[in-house]
Amino acid sequence: MVKCTDCKKKLTLVQETTNLCRCEQYYCDSHKDAVVHKCTFDYHNFSSSNLNNTLVTVVASKIDKI
Question: Is the pLDDT of residue 24 over 80?
Fold first, then answer.
């Protein structure tokens, strides 16, 4: 049984699968927001570096005139 890192409340099976933070800690519904539990994960650098790696340039092919 997994417990919330902040309040030590037992988590349900649904909460165990959905409330895992990117800082690799489990939190209950009241503590799962990153602002509430003082998350140590660096969201700013992760989002900018991840976004730059996933952007793809899309170029349409030319249509031949008949």
Answer: yes
pTM recorded for the entire structure = 0.59
The residue whose two tokens read 């031949």 is: 64
Cα separation of 60 and 8, whole Å? 54
Q: Which residues, in sequence order, are bridge partners of residue 2?
A: none
**Whole domain around residue 18: which residue ranges?**
1-43
The two tokens of residue 2 are 């997994």
Has residue 54 been placed in a domain? no
Nearest of 41, 22, 14 to residue 2 by alpha carbon: 14
What residues contact residue 36 under an 8 Å CB cut-off, 6+ apart? 30
